[in-house]
Amino acid sequence: MMSHNDSAPILVGVDVGGPKKGFHAVAIRKGKIIETYAACNAVEVVRWCRDLYAFAVGIDAPCCWSYTGRARPCERALAVERIHAFATPSQPVAERNPFYRWMLNGAELFRLITPHYRLFDGQHLPSRPMCFETFPQAVACALAGTIVSAKHKRNVRRRLLREAGLSIGILTNIDLVDAALCALTAQHLLNRTFKTYGDAAEGFIVVPKT
């Protein structure tokens, strides 16, 4: 277990999958990957983050349901920049459609983690631990400074992580790669080199600003 007295914060990224795939997480500190983790349920992920004394947790899943049943403002704003994201439905629609089980997993993670990690609301960064929504494809485009192909994400995203200074040998699958991009975004959030899409009502998506 890491000490909360360590001067450099531990930052975590979490990739969210459906019931079979579960959650994959990466922790970084001082620009280095220090640990990876996989779990089938959100309770274990929250426990892992707290055991690490992680300060910021970036999660690749919607933090809010759509009020209208249409794409949220953050997703529409990404679309304007030619970055495709699945439109988040209302909660009742998600609960009826098996496709959205991964979003339900993400919603459960946000529900369990927000008592310990305040959800980023677009205002001044709090001094206590926080969590936030992010999106690896948008992160990759921001780091590259251009729209990159999601079809070649395995190679492109690994290259971007290496260019950011991370040693990625421990990232054995694309889920951990995406989790590392989320953790890297947490570093940008703390450094105040970030931008947001969306609003407080239906959620912000945070990406690096380079």
Shape: globular
CATH superfamily, by name, is Ribonuclease H-like superfamily/Ribonuclease H
> How is the CATH topology named?
Nucleotidyltransferase, domain 5
Quickly give the CATH architecture: 2-Layer Sandwich
Strand order of the largest sheet: 3-2-1-4-6-5
Overall description:
This protein is of the alpha/beta class and 210 residues long. It has a single domain, classed as Ribonuclease H-like superfamily/Ribonuclease H (Nucleotidyltransferase, domain 5), CATH 3.30.420.10. 36% of the residues lie in helices and 22% in strands. The chain has helices spanning 42-52, 73-80, 91-96, 101-113, 136-144, 153-163, 174-191, and strands at 10-16, 23-29, 32-39, 54-60, 118-119, 130-133, 194-199, 203-208. The protein has a six-stranded mixed sheet with strand order 3-2-1-4-6-5. The protein has a two-stranded antiparallel ribbon with strand order 7-8.
In short:
Helix content is 36%, strand content 22%. With 210 residues, it is of the alpha/beta class.
List keywords for this structure.
22% strand; 36% helix; alpha/beta; two-stranded antiparallel ribbon; Nucleotidyltransferase, domain 5; 210 residues; disordered N terminus
Strands, helices and their partners?
Blueprint (H helix, E strand, L loop, with lengths): L9 E7 L6 E7 L2 E8 L2 H11 L1 E7 L12 H8 L10 H6 L4 H13 L4 E2 L10 E4 L2 H9 L8 H11 L10 H18 L2 E6 L3 E6 L2
Parallel strand pairs: 1-4, 4-6, 5-6
Antiparallel strand pairs: 1-2, 2-3, 7-8
